[in-house]
Specification:
Helix content of chain B: 10-25%
Distance between the termini of chain A: 13 Å
Radius of gyration of chain B: 18 Å
Structural class of chain A: alpha/beta
Number of strands of chain B: 10
Oligomer: heterodimer
Largest interface: A-B, 19 and 18 residues
Shape of chain B: elongated
Distance between the termini of chain B: 15 Å
Number of helices of chain A: 7
Shape of chain A: globular
Number of strands of chain A: 19
Strand content of chain B: 25-35%
Radius of gyration of chain A: 20 Å
Amino acid sequence: MIVPSQIPYRVREVEKLSPTLKRFYLEAADGGALPPSSAGAHVVLTIPGVHRTWKNAYSISSTPGERESYSIIVRRVLNSRGGSVQMHEGVTAGDVINGAVPHNLFALSRAGRKHVLIAGGIGITPLLSHAAALHGGEAPFELHQFSSKAEIPVFERLLGVYAGHAQVHGPGGEAEAVEAILTHQPLGAHVYVCGPPLLIELVVRTAEQLGWPTAAIHHESFGDHSAGAPFTAMLAKSKIEIAVGPDQSLLEAIEAVGVQAPYLCRGGACGQCMTRVIAGEPDHRDDVLTPEERAAGELIMTCVSRAKTPRLVLDL
Amino acid sequence: MADQGIRSRPVYGPVRLDATGRRHLLVTDKPEVPADALRDELGAFPEVWTVARTARQPSSPFLAPAEGAASTHAFRSLAQLFDALRARLSRETMGFRLYAVGSETFLADVGALGASAGLGRAEIVLGHAGSLGRRVYCVHCRTMTDGVKDNVFACSGCGASLFVRDHFSARLAAFMGVQVDAEVPGELPPIETLYE
């Protein structure tokens, strides 16, 4: 079982980008150099709260290889598990937060001749590190940001350094815009999309319809899809029945009773937490399982997926 | 000895139209596309390039396609086909699929040209037809020898007795040849004709 090695991060600075967006600069709490991170990598932070802790994954949005500090951007989301609210309200400069060393499930393809980056909302964060890695390099790139009307100026400010490469699209006409972006791209182009599930689906579907091979299509979902209706889970090996609350993930509920379960990304992307389902029907929210595997209902990603039935029995 | 267990040895699949592609080009080094190399009807391929190897071939524009058949163009020579293919690939966009049917050396050249133009493995389909004669790269003097049929041969550059390994370099589009009698000059393994 992979247990990501943990290090303490100190919050060097918190910068308010908009009413709901904050950028946190993290440095090594011991004053040394941070582990090197690559473009598209993320850290899983252990966010302490009064009644509970959260383990949330945040993409590193600063320049890859930078070892003095990482920056992450957190959107404050109400009606979710609450980690982002705690980051916004409970974490200030000087605080020390434990977290995993960076992992990367959204790397740039070395074979890419051109890189097309597409973000929806706060999905921009991994693509900011992609853009930083590509800026001034040999392979051309373009970055398309889809944004709500209110946040257009925020993203235009964030992307100002990439003038000539970056374009911010307001709401409406997404399907036509994505088709226009993906049509007439040269051979060897790779597309990377991060954002809400509907945007990811749109980009993946459009690229496939235009004949892009799957190896050239990269996606990472962001944010928190793990909250939902409560259910119970029976851990068959441990013989423990647990209640999964509406504001916690299945994985968090398993961890809360002291059972060690595998995990890595905590975002439904890596497949590390895949667990066998003995009974009950999963509500799949991950990006790992194929449509066939989803339909079979024999496997579940505990970090994001939940239950359609009141009870799940897991091989844990 | 026929299979040396080296995984870089290319495996050629039956050539069928990849329906996930949007534009398709089939090229062959022969005057006609060998039907047994295709899993689909030739007519399924919207565009076919052949090498007629004759001066009687009109060098200009595409031949008018027959009713219901693919658009075909016959080139006078391999060199002409490769020039046209290079130009075509530089203009092509994502959604393109390239199919090649022919000798192993031709497939290697098309594969290398496609890769250098940015095509990935899923976008090039290679089907073998005709000679299995190999292009071999002498790792000692860097000379290429085409049409090698035996497991051991004399390098056309330095004369060394080279053993033909299944180690295929996609970058060089050639198999690796290494001196077989380096320890005891003149001591050769049994010579077999394996690549006809």
